[in-house]
Specification:
The protein is an all-beta fold. It is 2% helix and 52% strand. It has one domain: TolB, C-terminal domain (Neuraminidase, 6 Propeller), CATH 2.120.10.30. The strands form 6 sheets. Strands 1-24-23-22 form a 4-stranded antiparallel β-sheet, with no helix packed on it. The protein has a 4-stranded antiparallel β-sheet with strand order 2-3-4-5, with no helix packed on it.
C-alpha cells in the first residue's frame, strides 16, 4: 500500500519534491532516466549517460547532474542546455547523490563506476563556480542541509560514517572541518541518501536495512519507517503539507532469485507520517 510508483528501477536515486509543481522526480541511474508522475500518468526523460540528482530552477526547469556535466532541462520539451562541467575523469566516474542548498547552490557527488576506493568527491556549484569540497570519498551520500543551524550533512556509505559540516551563514560555503555525526558501520548500517525535516531531524535511507531512520540534531536515534525493499536509497518529503515521506529503492547487485523474492525492490514508496519537511530550495545556476 506504500507503493507510489511501481516501475522497478535498477538503481533508484535522487528523490526530489518540486514545491511549485507539487510533483516528485527521481532517477534510475543505471537506466539513464529521470522519472516522475503527473496524476496517473507515468513520466520519463531518457538520457545518453548516467543521471542521478536534480534541483529545481523554476516551475518548468530542473538542473540535472549527469556524467557529462550539469544541464538545464526543460520539462515540457526535454531540451537540455549545458550549465557546468563535472569532473567524471573521462567516464571512470559517475554522479551520485546531490541536492540544492538553501543559498541557491547545488552540491553533487561523484564516485567510481565500481565504487573504487576513495575515487569519489563532493562538489558545489554556486554563482557559476564549480568548486571541489570533499575529495577522497568512496560512495559519497546523504547530502542535505539544515538552514536554521547552518549545517550540511554528508556521508561515505563505504565507511559507514555521516559527517556534519558547519556552513558560512552568508554564502553556504563550508567553514572549518566536518565532524562525525553518526558512526553506523559498527551497527552494520550503510548510510545512503538523507533529508532534514522542519524540526531539524535527520532522516537517512539505510541501504540493506529496509528502513529510513530518524535521528535528532545531536545524533540520537528516534525511530524508523520500514518499507518493502531492502535497498532503500533516497528520501524526500512531499505532498501538500510536506508530510509524505517518499523513498526510492534499487535492485542493483541482486541475482534473479533475489529479485523474484523481493518483488517491490526498485519501486518508489510514499507514506504519510507525523513529521513534516521543508520546501526544497531553488537552484540559482
Amino acid at each position: 500500500m506504500d507503493v507510489f510508483d511501481g516501475r522497478r528501477c535498477e538503481l533508484g536515486e535522487g528523490a526530489l519534491w518540486h514545491p511549485i509543481r507539487g510533483q516528485l522526480f527521481w532517477f534510475d541511474i543505471s537506466g539513464r532516466a529521470l522519472l516522475s508522475r503527473e496524476g496517473d500518468e507515468a513520466k520519463r526523460w531518457d538520457f545518453e549517460s548516467c543521471v542521478s540528482a536534480a534541483g529545481w530552477i523554476d516551475r518548468d526547469h530542473l538542473l540535472v547532474a549527469s556524467e557529462t556535466g550539469l544541464w538545464r532541462l526543460a520539462l515540457s520539451t526535454g531540451h537540455r542546455e549545458h550549465v557546468s562541467p563535472l569532473d567524471c575523469s573521462g567516464g571512470r566516474l559517475r554522479p551520485n547523490d546531490g541536492r540544492a542548498d538553501p543559498w541557491g547552490g547545488f552540491w553533487i557527488s561523484t564516485m567510481g563506476r565500481n565504487a573504487e576506493d576513495r575515487a569519489g568527491s563532493i562538489w558545489r556549484l554556486w554563482r557559476g563556480e564549480m568548486r571541489l569540497l570533499f575529495p577522497g570519498l568512496t560512495i559519497p551520500n546523504a547530502i542535505c542541509f539544515d538552514r536554521e543551524r547552518e549545517v550540511a550533512y554528508l556521508a561515505d556509505t563505504a565507511q559507514g560514517i555521516v559527517w556534519r559540516q558547519a556552513l558560512d551563514p552568508a554564502s553556504g560555503w563550508p567553514r572549518g572541518e566536518p565532524e562525525v555525526f553518526l558512526e553506523l558501520a559498527r551497527s552494520g548500517l550503510n548510510p545512503d541518501g538523507a533529508i532534514v525535516d522542519a524540526a531539524g531531524r535527520f532522516w537517512n535511507a539505510q541501504w540493506g536495512a529496509s528502513r529510513v531512520a530518524c535521528y535528532d540534531a545531536n545524533g540520537a536515534f528516534l525511530g524508523e519507517e520500514k518499507f518493502e525493499a531492502r535497498q532503500l536509497s533516497c528520501p524526500a518529503f512531499g505532498g501538500l503539507n510536506l508530510d509524505i515521506l517518499h523513498v526510492t529503492s534499487a535492485q542493483h547487485g541482486m541475482d534473479e532469485k533475489t529479485r523474484r523474492g523481493e518483488p517491490f525492490a526498485g519501486m518508489t514508496f510514499a507514506r504519510r507520517i507525523q513529521s513534516r519537511g521543508v520546501p526544497e530550495p531553488a537552484v540559482i545556476p
